[in-house]
Structures are given as structure tokens and as C-alpha cells.
Amino acid sequence: KVVRDGVVRSFPTTLLVEGDVVEMLYGDVAPCKMMLIQKGPPSNVSSNNILEASHVFKPSFFNDMTSKEVWEQHVQNRGRYQFVLLETPWANSLKAALVQDRPATIIYKQADVLRKFFYRILIIVLGLAVGINLLRFILKEAISENGHLDQAFELLVVFPIYAILPIIPLPFPTLWLIVRALWNKFRYLLTKWDGTSLTRSTNLFESLGSTTIICSIDREGTISSPFASVDQIYFPKANEDPTLLDIAEDPSTEFGVKFEDQDWNQHLSRLKPLGLNLLLNTNCGVLRGRKREHQHRKYSSFCINAKTKPARQSCLCRLGREIGFTDDALNAFAKKKEIFTIAPCHPSLQERIRNDQWEVPSMVSSIYEEEGQSGYQLLSDGNTEIILDNCSDYWDGQRLQAMSEEIENKIYDFYENSVINDMQCIAYAYRPINVENLKRIPFLMDSPNDSIGSYIVLPCPPEIDQIVEEEENDDRDLSLSQKVRLKRLKADQLEAKLHDFLFDESALTLQDEETFYHEVIQGQIFLAMATLCHQPKL
Hints:
This protein is an alpha+beta fold. It folds into 2 domains: 2-99, Calcium-transporting ATPase, cytoplasmic transduction domain A (Distorted Sandwich), CATH 2.70.150; 223-533, Calcium-transporting ATPase, cytoplasmic domain N. It is built from 14 helices and 19 strands. It has helices at residues 68-77, 89-99, 106-143, 152-164, 171-191, 204-209, 268-280, 317-323, 327-330, 384-389, 405-420, 464-470, 480-490, 510-520; strands at 2-4, 7-9, 21-24, 34-36, 50-51, 81-85, 216-217, 223-224, 229-235, 243-249, 257-259, 333-342, 362-370, 376-382, 391-395, 400-402, 424-433, 454-457, 524-533. Strands 9, 10, 11, 12, 13, 14, 15, 16, 17, 18 and 19 form an 11-stranded mixed beta sheet that branches. β1 and β2 (7-9) form a beta hairpin. α3 packs antiparallel against α4. It holds the Pfam family Cation_ATPase.
């Protein structure tokens, strides 16, 4: 995004010029060398405020990413930092295009084979001529009494050259045949339409305009679908192995996806809350408005404030319908508010696994009101780390269970293994919101079409400094984010705040609204986790 004439516009990278002011989010890649337009204290920024080309903009760009000043600046900027370009990206792209060597064409390779063939003939003939004339010279010296040293130059140099002179013109007839064949084909293309020839006979505009599908290539070189699709659903279970349900794309089915496990119906008690979350937390048209069948993508205004992985933009409403939900079941819910939560100082950003899939932990929560009910419901999806940080219980299909260290370690192990296997994970959570005296929340009575959401930036956990100091004496193989969470868990700081909310409409302030948003995202119930990957193209 480029700021020109005071307006934020979207421009391709090749149209940027030196001196442009661009907005960068955590996770964006610098198109060229750029400098931060600093608004905070100079001590918080790295040396020279410079971000080099192709570098990822991370919180580590600042000297102390956990400082209060950096956090306040992130809140003020709403995650958007302005940089001024010190170079023109187009110049670098042009230089790279000119320096890069083009692959050899088929005609060039064939001509190179002929050249090497003629070189071999010339070398063989020249070697034979030199050998024969050297033998003649030696025999003449041995037989003749007077000697023939004056003929050495003629025998060893001139005669071999005479031997290869008749061979030199041989490539010219071959070259003539090649040029004549190329000219005949070119003349044929100019005078007659050759339907079998694609070279210089297909309109480039028509080719691009008729493109119906775009593919991508994964890190193993396999041609894959451009959008990530769900592969597995993970459900935690106490004292037992977690439940894994495999999902497969199947265009022959009604909704395009199916469960590969035959006994998936036995897990409906855990699938129903997840299916409701999948269908409500999307905007691909399942509730109202235009429906987009292909591809199922969901757009969130959260992308304006933070960079998210492609899996977070994939709509899984087809899976919710496969579980059994219909339109009648969804029409009873009215969306009231969206809460965007981001943790730019999360301990997981310092872990090695973040080098594989770098993304600032974030969470999108939606508040829904069900018609005929007195309460509200909060449905969340986001990164595994931040979801776990705000969950105190989990749903096992029958009852609520308190989140324990054992369950958390199982979830983290599955999450890390999925990331290592080039998958992307999304966690889902839920929480009921009750209001005393069966009243409604005053600031949630606006139009549900209000697109303005609440933006929350979580500060750095105060336990992180103490954890880093104690890390040397801890022999457990746990990540930094796990250690921080376990410390909070043991201190009973993750207890669910499931108290009923009470609002005094006559004395309601903006501070009360902000406090409500910060409290309501805590004490959630962990539902499930989904792994998504780019499926091979069939």
C-alpha cells in the first residue's frame, strides 16, 4: 500500500519509485531498501532505521520489541508502519532481468551439437595429417643422407592445413539447409494458417484471457491447488489419544468435501460446535448476499492491520455443511461485532518454528446474538498459540474439561509436527456471553452491517523475562511460549472469566466498552484445530 496525495492506494511493486511512502505490516517483505519514518523514540529502532530489500519486516526490527514504547506505537499505528523507499524496485527488477541468463533454446542446442560434431572431424583429420607427415619426415631423415630439415615446416604445418581446408566448407551446406527450412516455415505461417503451430500464431491476450485455473508449486516441486484446503481435524481428549478426522476433496459429493473416516458420525457432539463456527465466521455468502462457489475464500478487514497466512483466508463453510448445518439453522444468528486481536510481542516469535511459517499470532472473534435467546456467543479462530493463551477449558464432546498441561503439550506437539510437514494450522474456540437481568449489551445494538471492529494489541507477557532467566536451569524440552503459559496456568491466571456482565446505560463510557472487549476474549473454550495444506492438482 502506497500513500500518495494523502490517500492510501494499492500499487504493484514494479510501479513504486524512489521517495514513495509505503505502509508495511509485520510479515511483509521489503520490495527494496527502505527507511522507517520514525515517530517514536530513536532508541527503539534498529541501526539507521533501514530495512534491506527482500527482508521480512518483523518486531525484531526494533531493538527492544518488548518495550512499552514499541507496544504503544503499534497500538497507535494499528499495526501499520510507514517507510520511505530509498530505491526504485523496477530498476532492480530490470537489472536482474538483464543479468539473468536465458535458458538455451532447442535450435541453439541442435546447432551446438552440429558445431561439436564438425570440431571433432576437424581435430581427427588434423591429428591424422600431423601424424602421417611426422612419420614421413622421420623416415626421410633416416633414409636420406643429406637430410631434409628445410622441409620440416612444410610437412608438419602446411600439409595438415591443406588436409583440413576441403573439410571447412562442409558446414555451409548444412547451415544453408537449416536457414532454408526456417524460412519455409516462417513463410508458411505468414501465408497459411497452421492450427498445429503455437509459436507466434496465438494471441497473447486471448491466451491470458482464457486462463481458467491457476496452480502453485509446493516446496517439493509438486503442482498444487493455489488455495489451501482442510486436511485433518484435531480434537483433544483427556487420558486418551487425540481424535483425528481426515478430510478429502471430492468434487463428486454434494459439498465437494467428505470425511474419509467411516465412523465420523460418532463425533457429531464435537463436530457441531466446530461446524457452527466455520459457517458463522465467514463471509463467502452462506448467510446473505452473493454466493461465491469457487473458490471458497473469506475476506476479513483484519488483513488491513496484520498479515495472515493463506489458510486463514480459506473458507471452510463446505465442511460445516457436510457436518449437517442448513440455512435455517444459521438465520437465527445476527452478527454484532468483530474483535481483532494481535500479539506482536508473543513469545512464540522467538522460536525456531516461526522461521518456517512466519506470522504474528492473531485471532479473529465474532460476537453473535441468537434470536429468542437472552445471551450472546463469541466464536473465535486464529493461531494456535494465541487461542490457547485465551482458553481455560476444552470441549471433549460430553462436558467441559479444564485445560491441563498434558492436553496443552499434546496440542503443541501436533501443531509443531504439522508446521514441520508444511501444513498450516487454525485453532477454534467458543465462549458464551451472559448479561445480568437478561439485558442486552448497549454498544452491541448497532446495525450488524457495521464493519468497524475492535482492534486489540496484547502486551508482552510480564513472565517472559523471568522465564528467560530460568530457562538455563530448566531441562524440559518446551518452547518459550509453552513455559510462559504453564507458569500462568500454575498461578491460576488462566481461569475463565465467565461472570455475567452488567452495564449501566446511564453511565456507560468508552473505557467500559474497551474493558469488555479485553475481558470477553478470555476464558474461552477450545473446540478443535484444523490443518490445511495445498493439495496436489489432479
